[in-house]
Amino acid sequence: MDTFLDSVMLSRLQFAAMAMVHISFAVITIGLALFIAVMEGLWLKTKDPVYYGHARFWSRLLLLNFGIGVVTGLPLEFSFGNNWAPFAAKSAFFGEILGTETLSAFMLEAGFLGIMVFGWNRVPPKLHFFATCMVVVGSSLSVFWIMVANSWMQTPAGVVMQDGRLILTSYREAIFNPDMIFAVLHMYVACLETSLFVIGAISAWYVLRRRHVEFFARSFQVALIAAIVIAPLQALIGDETGRHVARHQPTKLAAMEAHWDTNPPGEGAAWIIAGLPDEVNQKNVWAVEVPYVLSLLLTHSPTGEVKGLKDFPKDVHPPVLITFYTFRVMVIAGFAFVGLALWTLWRWKKGALTAERLPGEKWLLWAWMAAGPLAWAAVEGGWVTREVGRQPWIVYNLVRTGESATALPAGVVAVSLAGYLVIAGLLAAAFLALAGRVLAHGPDAAMMAPPQAKTQAD
Amino acid sequence: MQTLQTYLPDFFFLTLGVLLLLYMVTDGYNLGLGIFSLRARREEERGVMIHSIASTWHASQTWLVILGGVLFGSFPVVYGVAMSALYIPVMLMLAGLAFRGVAIEFYDESPNRGRWGLAFGLGSLVATISQGFILGGLLSGMPVVNGLFAGGYGDWLNPFSALIAVGGAAGFVLLGTTYLAMKTEGPLRERSIKAAVMAAWAVLAGLSLILLWMSLQRYEGRYSLLSLRQGHYIYLTMPIFLFEFAMLLRSLKKAEQDKPFQWSVLLFLTLVVGLAAALYPTAIPPALTIFDAAAPARSLWFLFVVSVVLLPVMLAYNAWQYLVFRGKVTEGYQSEKAQN
User: Fold this and answer.
1) DSSP strand E in chain B: where?
2) With contacts defined as CB-CB under 8 Å, which chain B residues touch A77?
3) Closest residue in chain B to residue A124, using alpha carbons only
4) Is A274 helix (H, G, I), strand (E, B) or coil?
5) Residue A167 contacts B where some CB pair is shorter than 8 Å
6) ipTM for the whole complex
7) DSSP 3-state assignment of A439?
8) Which pTM value belongs to this model?
9) Is A233 a domain residue?
10) Which CATH number among 1.10.260, 2.40.128, 1.10.10, 1.20.1630 corresponds to the domain B16-322?
């Protein structure tokens, strides 16, 4: 244990904890802000007070979520200096992208959030809508920049190693690195998908309990339209992302699939549904396989070559067990969402999703309620796959994680990690309790009526 | 262009100074108000304090995020060295800020307002003290070898940084109470003015002790800010500081509306300018300069363009935000997110 839990390992665990906590809130902020903007836009267009009510109701949850998102994001930014100082000193490009993100995205989000949540009666409706849109633009830009920075760590381009530092040779290549476009798309769509399933789950809960059925049938209908488009879209993006990983990060792909031996010419690589990878002996103790499928998925040919992990030296192997199973969590969730989208589409075609008939669709509503937490699990699974699968590199094939950590005493990091877990646990529990209170209380009639005078003046 | 390029590290030294000032002033009053809230007499009073900043604190805290991001981008070595050397106070600050921020958002929704009110106050206190130790630790000097911190992880804890922490807390309370005097009415306003007078004297006492300490260090031939090449600039700012201090006391005595807060901001401006003048061109005392620590020229160009375009825009919409939420906050005030 002494050698396993050294300062570097503890720093990695701490970063993982911080990232996994922060992302749960960040994805919701991004998607929910967009949902609110759509509702507010619909209100301005149709003058239907239901949309105004939605904008106000979800804003309350957004604010709770935003607060904890902001304070859990701050440690992530600082950790690049705190725990990863050698990496910070070495990778100027990463720092400037992070700097650009703070300058272009975060203030836009934070500077307009106050007006979005508290300014309903202080600025005219159109100006308010502008503020809401700025929050959406800010949070969306932050997805873009953070994925530029992260994708560059996955498939670094436009830099050369010089005197131990990564010197930039081309901005175009570094920003538009091979992974970037699909990383941004995959993450942005994940934000929308997660938020929509959470909005759908909450709406389903109200409808099932027959509270404010008409009101929440509306948000359910919006969520399902989006889900019907977005869930299949995400599956397609994910499929393409997989092929990118196979091309640019073959060790990660092999770990994701627990694929040890390259398939000989003329034979197909099998896709493993489930198994028990043995990392010491470099084989699977047992595995349930579907022949040819891995080759088919990645090369679109039943016998296309897929490199096995054994083709690479052992000191560049990522942890297989974690990568293999977190990837499966994400993929299974993704397929479940596509299934749910199809089921919902079928019920919709049957006319079962009107406010009158929706409360009768018990099984469908229950499935939607399960989809909320599952979406969260998919995001976490995807991120763990992405980051653990990149190991042992912090910048793939260029800089090792082991040489990038600050030489902190292990005890100091152990205490900060424990402290972080306690505080994050406390705050997350409080968040759930308070969000639960807001939901139990439900939409407030007084708050839901649009400001009449202002609407007419507008 | 070549000439401009040689000045890029200077540009970022200046920009970081501006960002530090923006953060200190805008979040300084939030944090100082948070510390003052520990002495609120009734829950309603604490509610007024929290509501007076609930709509704008996100932007204030974001200046810290930007300060960190721009520092990382422009002087990655400073970012790595300072953050690792100050690991412990930075973690404590983050914990304090976490409780402070979440408490503001949770306050209105919670059945236990008292508990979150206390978290708001204690979080603000911990964050403020930690920030004092962070600044103090940085100014105490750090050994740097090959671009990495080569000192001890407890170096930041020393008499000098402790003085900065206490003096800084007094300064934030001054900002917080003068802000409150501007935003409230009645007994709370009167008590804020009284507290502001005390905080102002505490700031002066703290600064005097810090100067005394630095002079002693210099006398004994040890490092302090004063032994830097331009260290004497600190003395030059003193007359200006004392003038502003006198004006602050005068406007507090006359119980003016906005003036005490404005004079407090000017005090901070003077201190930051004095500090920057003394430090320049040092990035981390005693030896690391901004030229040693700067990112490669191309990176600086990139961030230069981004900053020059975006900082003015940012200042503009921040100003608009303060304009929208101007005016007094009263006890009858209900959070507008739950009100029509």
Assistant:
1) 144-145, 148-149, 282-284, 288-289
2) 65, 68-69, 72
3) B324
4) strand
5) yes
6) 0.89
7) helix
8) 0.92
9) no
10) 1.20.1630
